[in-house]
Amino acid sequence: MVTIQTATGPIDTADLGFTLMHEHVRVGWGPMFQQYPSMFPKDKDLAQAVERLKAAKAAGVTTIVDLTPIDLGRDVTLIADAARLSGMQIIVPTGFYYSIPFGFFIRDAKDMTDLMVRDITEGVDTTGIRANVIKCATETEMHAVNEKVLRASAQAHRQTGVPICTHTHPASRTGLDQQRVFKDEGCDLGRIVIGHSDDSDDIGYLETIIQNGSYCGMDRFGLSQPRTSEQRAEMVAKLVEKGYADRITLSHDSCCCFHWAPEEMLKSFAPNWRMTHIPQDIVPMLRGYGVSDANITQMTTGNPRRLFEMNQPY
Ligand SMILES: [Zn+2]
């Protein structure tokens, strides 16, 4: 039995079940939440999150991994309330987006590592809510400042054993840059998910990520750019056919509350960008592409469990 932390307390990894590996309860710009709370009423966001999480639960999802970085408005008490009121198991993140936040700019990189380790081992601030996954990101280029954040994240990973799940820009093949830095930091690449890999149309790139040992996070189902859901599913099927079902995780990167764009814009731009899209639409689509139920279970249940079970520091 392996115990890990969720927003509402410890669980046995056997109880993770159908897990979406890259989602968000609420994403925005932290300073706006802090200084303009009346523009972003928390009770309204909570109600919307609970409604959407309940819908995902009814569709068969039992766990979501929230990958909101600290500097994109992560709010662990909101996440915990949403988990409690919806019944969804939610894994809480720590980590920073692709640049060093201003508050750490003239500090040692170790200070970022120490904060992440504290989030994981003791809890976020005084909430007692413990993170169990590290998020980090690389956009079109892995510049020196980004590399520093990745190295700090790698150190926190090794000190705690919780998995790293990343954001990448696959058209720039930055997943490979991340792997190089993580390997240089002594990380086991088999404990790392290279995220947004389904934005790629280059199967050679994805095979290289897998052959280097990591998981491909096929985690943007429902976003129609740069790939449609059909194209994303077809790529998953091709990788499964090559024998890689044990190296793929599935998700949407969707948000219960997304404050980067007006809600109406999202409705027309990405109508399927919701946490029910995979269980309701993508699973049947994968079957249509010839993926077996055993392989679907492996990607949605087996792989997340294995990732979270490798939870020893090293
Ligand atoms: Zn995301």
Structure explained in plain terms:
The chain is of the alpha/beta class. The protein has one domain (3-309): TIM Barrel (Alpha-Beta Barrel). The protein has helices at 30-35, 42-58, 76-86, 109-121, 144-160, 174-184, 203-211, 229-241, 263-269, 277-288, 293-309, and strands at residues 3-6, 9-12, 19-27, 63-66, 89-91, 93-94, 133-137, 164-167, 192-194, 215-218, 248-250, 255-258. The protein has a six-stranded parallel β-sheet with strand order 6-7-8-9-10-11. A four-stranded parallel β-sheet has the order 5-4-3-12. Zinc ion binds at residues 22, 24, 67, 167, 253.
Q: What labels would you give this structure?
A:
single chain; 314 residues; alpha/beta; TIM Barrel; six-stranded parallel beta sheet; four-stranded parallel beta sheet; 11 helices; binds zinc ion
Distance between the termini: 19 Å
Would you identify the CATH architecture? Alpha-Beta Barrel
Strand order of the largest sheet: 6-7-8-9-10-11
Overall tally of structural domains? 1
Small molecules in complex = zinc ion
What do the pLDDT scores average to? 97
Supply the CATH class. Answer: Alpha Beta
Q: What is the assigned CATH homologous superfamily?
A: Metal-dependent hydrolases
Q: What do we call the CATH topology?
A: TIM Barrel
User: Tell me about the biggest sheet?
Assistant: 6 strands, parallel
- What is the string of helix and strand elements? EEEHHEHEEHEHEHEHEHEEHHH
Percent strand equals 15-25%
In short:
By secondary structure, the protein is α/β, with parallel strands linked by helices. Helix content is 42%, strand content 16%.
